[in-house]
Design a protein that fits this description.
- This is Acetyl-coenzyme A synthetase.
- InterPro entries: Ac_CoA_lig, ACAS_N, AMP-bd_C, AMP-bd_C_sf, AMP-binding_CS, AMP-dep_synth/lig_dom, ANL_N_sf.
- It comes from Pacificitalea manganoxidans.
- Belongs to the ATP-dependent AMP-binding enzyme family.
- One of its GO terms (molecular function) is ATP binding.
- It is a single chain.
- The chain is α/β, with parallel strands linked by helices.
- The chain has a domain at about 525-645: GMP Synthetase, Chain A, domain 3, CATH 3.30.300.
- It is built from 22 helices and 30 strands.
- The strands form 8 sheets. An 8-stranded mixed sheet has the order 12-11-8-6-7-14-15-23, sandwiched between helices. Strands 5-4-17-16-18-19-20 form a 7-stranded mixed sheet, sandwiched between helices.
- A hairpin with a 2-residue loop joins strand 26 and strand 27.
- The radius of gyration is 24 Å and the shape is globular.
- It starts with a helix and ends in a 6-residue tail after the last helix.
- It binds 5'-O-[(S)-ethoxy(hydroxy)phosphoryl]adenosine.
- 5'-O-[(S)-ethoxy(hydroxy)phosphoryl]adenosine (WTA) binds near residues 311, 312, 388, 518 and 524.
Length: about 650
């Protein structure tokens, strides 16, 4: 048994005393949620305001060929009204969004629920004026500014489906997503300041739109005032137009199952999938998990440091907090600008009570030294959270001691773009934590460990297997945009009757879950999900490259780094220049987050006689783990392996 399995951290008594859920209540509610999901979720569904109340609760089928997931299906609601309008009677003057700009010397904004209402209505009226209708897709490619949230909520208000593309993605990646979802319009900004640098979002959008239908309109938020090019008739100045349209826009009644948004995410094969989330089930689940996992109480200031371009930003900057009438903090910058104390400076400045970030950020800041934390008064913090990847015990201890001063429970939340909200996570007043474990399932979530080869359910408490979920929960994705068959194949085919997560997992004798990482060809680099296939296809699109294979390897700060084996065309010779050229190439094809950390020239790749690349071997070489190469006898040419080992990057 690992030491961390024995190291149990209960929340302080003072925390438990005020917590929404204590240990006894967790047990009782969890049992109720799996014994009678309909009754349990009928009650939780009432967290939302319904225009027409639902009479049906759960209607889900995981059978291959018939996969269908519906929650509250006959209910009618509007997501924006739930996030804004219903709070106006009691908290119109309360701050809904605190916006902290990239430059600490620039003023922060405090946007009240009343102001949020007006801004979202005006934004919605701008969308309507551009012909955006219910069910139309709107791509949002934005900096971390309030207008990104206005755009999301404006779509929700009129029943349009938004699809946010992370501002770090390249024009090509943006164009692919605009085309895949058939967007009618893109919302962007002139430029995006981050860490003192600027990303040219409008010019990226201009480049992307060259590959899209000429009917796609472009709404531009002039945020920095930087010089941009302009196409009359296509480009619209949103801020100017918001001033001219009506300040009110009635929320459109939507079915609970109408899609709220599409978010593209990487899988083990092929191009990114458009994950589709619903309106009713998603919002109820985001709201409930936000309240209970973070033990959010009225008046608290909640900060999730993710970008709205990822699901974490959707559920825990915008939808969950605002559905709960919370004050949510949105940060434009990065943790290390202007110095490595920025996160803590912002926590102190705005009196943050719950802080939620990724282990990669914690590791990076830990490396800068504790003095950056100690400079700031962190007495407002009551709870800390992590998401995106397993947290190593050293980083956990540092977060706990240096940031939380040993008095803030740490919620290590396991979930996915596909799940909409937290799945396995401590409820802080109920479940003592263990460093590195996501602990126990959230209400209604039934995790199972399966034997990877046979798919049999492992009944022993202490066990290891692949992680699957036995039944539906309201926040579950409904389909892959435009490709329901792919949805079924990806998540329901390999282990019939279950939702397969793609993660490996261990369960200890106390029934705690420990995520061990992806078991498929998905990389997790600094908490960002990436398919090896995507990076490979970017590499082979370069004229000098004949073939490429990409694997992950352990990286101290990023969790995983990207290791690329590249076979060049016959007439090409390896050089440092070419290596740099390939790095730049991948940055422009996908975005900076996909840049390979190490490129190894590989005269040959290990392949089976039928031509399949044996990634298992490449992974082992990248990990420097030559003893465990396994059986190489099925290789067409076993000598390529010796050559690859001989030339491994960063030996030692
Ligand atoms: C990984 C992010 C360990 C996991 C919300 C999952 C985690 C993938 C954790 C989803 C955690 C997420 N501990 N691993 N607490 N949270 N992961 O879709 O491999 O960007 O499958 O969603 O991140 O990444 P995604």
């Amino acid at each position: 048994m690992l030491d961390t399995e024995k190291s149990s951290h209960p929340a302080p008594d003072s925390f438990v005393a005020k917590a929404h859920v204590d240990a006894a209540r967790y047990e009782q509610m969890y049992q109720a949620s799996v014994d009678d999901p309909d009754a349990f979720w009928a009650k939780e569904g009432k967290r939302l305001d319904w225009i027409e109340p639902f009479t049906k609760v759960k209607n889900a089928n995981f059978t291959l060929g018939e996969v269908s997931i519906k929650w509250f299906e006959d209910g009618v609601l509007n997501v924006a009204a739930n996030c804004i309008d219903r709070h106006l009677a009691t908290r119109a003057d309360q701050t809904a969004i605190i916006w902290e700009p990239d430059e600490p010397t620039d003023p922060a904004l405090h946007i009240t629920y009343r102001e949020l209402h007006e801004n979202v209505c005006r934004f919605a009226n701008v969308l309507l004026s551009q012909g955006v209708m219910r069910g139309d897709r709107v791509v949002i490619y934005m900096p971390m500014i309030p207008e990104a949230a206005y755009a999301m909520l404006a779509c929700a208000r009129i029943g349009a489906i938004h699809s946010i593309v992370f501002a770090g993605f390249s024009p090509d990646a943006l164009a692919n997503r605009i085309n895949d979802c058939g967007a009618k319009l893109v919302v962007t900004a002139d430029t995006a300041p981050r860490g003192g640098k600027r990303t040219a979002l409008k010019s990226n959008t201009d480049a992307a739109l060259l590959h899209c239908s000429d009917k796609v309109r472009c709404l531009v938020v002039k945020h920095t005032g930087d010089q941009i090019s302009w196409i009359d008739g296509r480009d619209v100045d949103v801020k100017a137009m918001m001033k001219t349209v009506a300040p009110d826009c009635p929320p459109r009644p939507m079915g609970a199952e109408d899609p709220l948004f599409i978010l593209y995410t990487s899988g083990s094969t092929g191009k990114p999938k458009g994950v589709v989330h619903s309106s009713g089930g998603y919002l109820a689940y985001a709201a409930m998990t936000h309240q209970l996992t973070f033990d959010y109480h009225d008046g608290d200031v909640f900060w999730c440091s993710a970008d709205v371009g990822w699901v974490t930003g959707h559920s825990y900057i915008v939808y969950g907090p605002l559905a709960n009438g919370a004050t949510t903090l949105m940060f434009e910058g990065v943790p290390t600008y202007p110095d490595a104390g920025r996160f803590w400076e912002v926590c102190a400045k705005h009196g943050v009570n719950q802080f939620y970030t990724a282990p990669t950020a914690i590791r990076a800041l830990m490396g800068q030294g504790s003095e950056w934390v100690e400079k700031h008064d962190l007495s407002s913090l009551r709870l800390l959270g992590t998401v995106g990847e397993p947290i190593n015990p050293e980083a956990w201890e540092w977060y706990n001691e240096t940031v939380g001063k040993g008095r803030c429970p740490i919620v290590d939340t396991w979930w996915q773009t596909e799940t909409g909200g937290h799945m396995i996570t401590p409820l802080p007043g109920a479940i003592p934590t263990k460093p590195g474990s996501a602990t126990k399932p959230f209400f209604g979530v039934q995790p199972v460990l399966l034997e990877p080869n046979t798919g049999e359910v492992i009944d022993d408490t202490a066990a290891e297997g692949v992680l699957a979920i036995a039944d539906s929960w309201p926040g579950q994705m409904r389909t892959v945009w435009g490709d329901h068959a792919r949805f079924e194949e990806t998540y329901f085919q390999q282990y019939p009757g279950y939702y397969f997560s793609g993660d490996g997992c261990r369960r200890d004798a106390d029934g705690y879950y420990w995520i061990t990482g992806r078991v498929d060809d998905v990389l997790n680099v600094s908490g960002h999900r990436m398919g090896t296939a995507e990076v490979e296809s970017a590499l082979v699109a370069h004229k000098a490259v004949a073939e490429a294979a990409v694997v992950g390897y352990p990286h101290d700060v990023k969790g995983q780094g990207i290791y690329a084996y590249v076979t060049l065309m016959n007439n090409e010779t390896p050089s440092d220049e070419l290596r740099k050229d390939l790095e730049t190439w991948v940055r422009t094809e996908i975005g900076p987050i996909a840049k390979p950390d190490l490129i190894q020239w590989a005269p040959g790749l290990p392949k089976t006689r039928s031509g399949k690349i044996m990634r298992r071997i490449l992974r082992k070489i990248a990990e420097n783990d030559y003893g465990a190469l396994g059986d190489t006898s099925t290789l067409a040419d076993p000598s390529v392996v010796d050559d690859l080992i001989e030339n491994r990057m960063n030996k030692g």
